[in-house]
Specification:
With 463 residues, this protein is α/β, with parallel strands linked by helices. The protein has helices at residues 7-14, 60-67, 82-91, 120-126, 197-212, 244-265, 305-308, 335-343, 359-363, 419-438; strands spanning 35-41, 70-76, 111-112, 130-136, 154-158, 180-183, 186-190, 217-221, 272-278, 309-315, 324-326, 330-331, 375-378, 384-389, 392-395, 400-403, 444-445. The strands form three sheets. Strands 1, 2, 4, 5, 6, 7, 8, 9, 10, 11 and 12 form an eleven-stranded mixed β-sheet that branches. The chain has a four-stranded antiparallel β-sheet with strand order 13-14-15-16, with helices on one face.
Length: 463
């Protein structure tokens, strides 16, 4: 769909909040908090769902979530690349605040998200939730850095990107190790068949729901796809007119359907918050094997809207009215405080976060506006790149100012017309960044390895 403008996508970008009945409240006699499921795909573009306007990729299950829940059309990730973005989602913080801002974690790296940080899994585990992670982690792969040290009871998946191996990047590029598949902290396979990754992670997630349906649960499904190299199982290969990329997205949609079916089978679908979003925009240099940002400019690794504005859909029948579309700004950093609030968990004051509880926004309550007064953009290397406040977005270099509500493609630079606004936004961005930098917390460095470090060297190529 690269370069294609569709009526569906235009509607996604320009839709306003429809008139809706007051959403019903969660049942007062329930003796347990809501379940939570978060799908977090890899490198999927803003325009890569049919409910966000794609003409040939069919995603009926995510579409069903949107029809029965809420769709956010101005939803942002805190970084345009993998590891920092994942850190922000789980901790509610800008990556710089938790030391995870300097690009992605490679196999040779010895650091990761500090276990002292409070993740969504940590918060929910303390509230009695069963917690499981099924997919790609990418926040540290040495002992003490994997999901089981970050609040998850169990983990099944890969520790970093699916291209970080000698199999996919042979000869002189720094990847001299095979890709491991882990269960908890144990390597159970080397170089797993990637055609089966989406299916296997889905089966593990469904089995986890089956095993824990009688207690509150948090299921985090960070699928490895559609990060390059892309693979679909035999059941989906060749089905989509969009080619292999479309096959991959449609299999991810199948995954969503399997989880929704499991929730319904156990009679807990109404009291489960299910979220679907992605870690950053599409990897455009790969053309037809990468995704599409639709009307947005740019993609993965950059600070144009296509790199950081991503699709977001949430379904929670007990609280979220059907068919809601919200244009207010929200971010992945909002998920931790929102989910903690639903679970009745009070987050401590000792570790400041940057996100906000957006449940009133998701419910469509009258008069509610975005709690995000301004949003900072950071480069893939963690350097301050820009700021959005209201409809205005300033990129510090080259100093462009865009109205990203009316000019979603960032085609018209308004800096010359609003020099005072440019100066004000630049000052605000620098001040906010300085505050985050001053309160930044460290990552954890670990010398011990799970596998032989002699087989891993520092990479010279970017994933």
């Amino acid at each position: 769909m690269n370069g294609t403008i569709t009526a569906g996508l235009l509607g996604s970008l320009l839709a306003t909040v429809p008139a809706s009945p007051v959403p019903k409240s969660a049942s007062g006699d329930r003796d347990r908090p809501p379940n939570v499921v978060v799908f977090f795909t890899d490198d999927q573009g803003f325009g890569d769902l049919s409910c966000f306007g794609h003409p040939t990729i069919h995603t009926p299950n995510v579409d069903r979530m949107a029809a029965e829940g809420v769709k956010l059309t101005q939803f942002y990730v805190a970084s345009p690349v993998c590891s920092p973005s994942r850190a922000a989602l789980l901790t509610g913080c800008y990556p710089k605040r938790v030391g995870m801002h300097e690009h992605v974690i490679f196999p040779a790296y010895d650091h990761g998200l500090h276990p002292d940080e409070t993740t969504i899994a940590d918060a929910l585990s303390e509230a009695g939730y069963a917690t499981g992670c099924f997919g790609k982690w990418h926040l540290g792969h040495r002992p003490g850095l994997l999901p089981t040290s970050q609040g998850f009871d169990t983990f099944f998946g890969i520790p970093y990107s699916n291209d970080m191996s000698q199999f996919h990047r042979p000869g002189g590029n720094g990847y001299r190790h095979s890709l491991p598949l882990l269960r908890d902290e144990a390597v159970i396979e080397w170089e797993p068949d990637q055609r089966l990754l989406t299916r296997r992670c889905t089966e593990e997630a469904v089995a986890f729901i089956d095993a824990h349906a009688d207690q509150p649960f948090f299921v985090y499904v960070p699928h490895a796809m559609p990060h390059i190299p892309i693979y679909a199982s035999e059941a989906f290969a060749g089905r989509s007119p969009r080619g292999t990329y479309g096959d991959v997205i449609e299999e991810i949609d199948w995954s969503v359907g399997e989880v929704l079916d499991a929730l319904e089978r156990h009679g807990v679908d109404d009291e489960t918050l299910v979220i679907f979003t992605t870690d950053n925009g599409p990897w455009l240099p790969f053309k037809e094997r990468g995704g599409s940002a639709g009307l947005l400019a740019g993609g993965k690794g950059g600070n144009l809207e296509g790199g950081q504005r991503v699709p977001f859909v949430a379904r929670y029948p007990d609280r979220i009215p059907a068919g809601l579309v919200q244009r207010a700004v929200a971010t992945t950093m909002d998920l931790l405080p929102t989910i903690a609030g639903l679970a009745g968990v009070t987050l401590g004051d000792d570790r400041p976060i940057d996100g906000h509880d957006i449940m009133p926004l998701l419910e469509g309550l009258e008069g509610v506006e975005s709690p995000t007064a301004s949003f900072l953009y950071y480069t893939a290397r963690g350097e301050l790149a820009g700021i959005r406040r209201g409809r205005w977005k300033l990129l510090l270099e080259p100093g462009t100012l865009h109205d990203v509500e009316s000019d979603v493609g960032e085609q018209w630079n308004r800096a010359d017309r609003h020099p005072e606004l440019v100066a004000e936004l630049r000052r605000l961005a620098v001040e906010r960044d300085a505050t985050i930098t001053a309160g930044a917390r460290p990552v954890l460095e670990v010398e011990e390895t799970i596998w032989d470090p002699a087989t891993v060297v520092r990479p010279t190529a970017s994933p």
